[in-house]
Amino acid sequence: MGLAAFSAVQAQNRSDTEPRTLHGQPVPEPSPDQSAGPISPGRGSSIKGKVAVVTGAARGIGRAIAVEFAANGADVVVLDIAGPVSVASDAKPATPEDLEETVRQIKAYGRRVDSIRADIRDIAALRAAADRVEKSFGKIDIVVADAGIQRWKPLLEMEDAEWRDVIDNNLNGTANTIRAFAPGLVRRKRGRIIVLSSMQGKHGTKDAASYSASKWGILGLMKSAALELGQYNITVNALLPGLVDTALTRYDKRLVESMGETGHKPQGPQPTAQEAWDTRAPTVPLKVGWLQPDDISPAAVFLASDAAAMVTGAEYEVTGGDSAKDI
Predict the structure, then answer these.
(1) Among residues 211, 232, 251, 316, which one is catalytic?
(2) Coil, helix or strand at residue 318
(3) Which has the closest alpha carbon to 42: 17, 72, 66, 75?
(4) Coil, helix or strand for 35?
(5) In angstroms, how far is CA 278 from the centroid of its own chain?
(6) What is the model's pTM?
(7) Are 144 and 62 in contact (CB under 8 A)?
(8) Contact of 144 with 55, CB cutoff 8 Å
């Protein structure tokens, strides 16, 4: 089919019906594989028939993304260490029961699911997981690198091991996830990779330098991977949540810090959750003290969908409006 004929066929299904010509000659257009395609219902939320792998899926944002994928038609493999990660994690560890709850919620949508317990710091374990998924599901279409830990401690008081563990888990673990699962996407010459950074990856964070550094690093990793993998029709993007109510953030120190960011201190030794909410919410454009995991997951579905075919190397911020305060 010639270029002009191809353009005519394309025009039948697109919103701009005017011929795309310049000086009487057809203007080149991308192939169907290089385009989000014509408008169709649900194209930004349908990932039917896709196979997704989500790390850190035992709870929080990882679970929300995994279940949201299932709700929109994908089969999902959920991966989590489901146990203690490091003394450098301020949050209580996820459990095998947490991971099973994610599995239960995915099954409720009638989707196929498998769970794998693995440490993202162990690239050999991730490569074994990738082989297992390829054999069991026949393919991998979407990879989400969500697993992470957070340490709240002044930089000059932090032990060497605490610094290393946060960087090793968050940054190196995300790189390991890409390195282990991307080869399958390259072989199929298509796929979606979504990494989880944070708004703390775009600005400094008092008493959480290791976390901010790791999340800044993830943005550089994402953009570099997007440059390298684009030739294989693979997109790589980052989700940047604002403050989200998960086990990673639901403890006294984080509440104190969230208030400190607004210039306030708790009235007593520790703030109540309500006090922290009431202090922070007025400073956020959408007037919420923090978001929920389910506020983040719809953006992941879009980035995983065919509608995001031309989105790569991008930072998608879901913050309730905190993004408006940053340059």
Answers:
(1) 211
(2) strand
(3) 72
(4) coil
(5) 28
(6) 0.90
(7) yes
(8) yes
Tokens of 17: 């019906």
Nearest-angstrom CA–CA distance, 177 and 184:
12
pLDDT tens track for 134-187: 999 999 999 999 999 988 899 999 999 999 999 999 999 999 999 999 999 999
Is there a catalytic annotation at residue 232? Answer: no
Report in angstroms the alpha-carbon separations of 198 from 71, 86, 302. Answer: 25, 20, 18
Q: Where are the alpha helices (DSSP H) in the chain?
A: 3-11, 60-71, 96-107, 123-137, 160-167, 173-188, 209-229, 252-260, 273-280, 293-304
What's the count of helices (H) and strands (E) in the chain, helices before strands?
10, 9
pLDDT 10s digits, 274-318: 888 888 889 889 888 888 999 999 999 999 999 999 999 999 999
Which amino acid is located at 213 in the chain? Answer: A
Distance CA 57, CA 70 (A): 13
How far CA 153 is from CA of 206, 209, 216, 258, 267, in Å, comes to: 9, 8, 18, 14, 22
Burial 148-176 (b: 16+ CB within 10 A, else e): bbbbbbeeeebeeebbebbbbbbbbbbbb
326: how many CB neighbours lie within 10 A of its CB?
10
What three-state secondary structure class fits 192? strand
| pLDDT, mean of residues 102-120 | 97
Cα distance between residue 241 and residue 295, in whole Å: 9
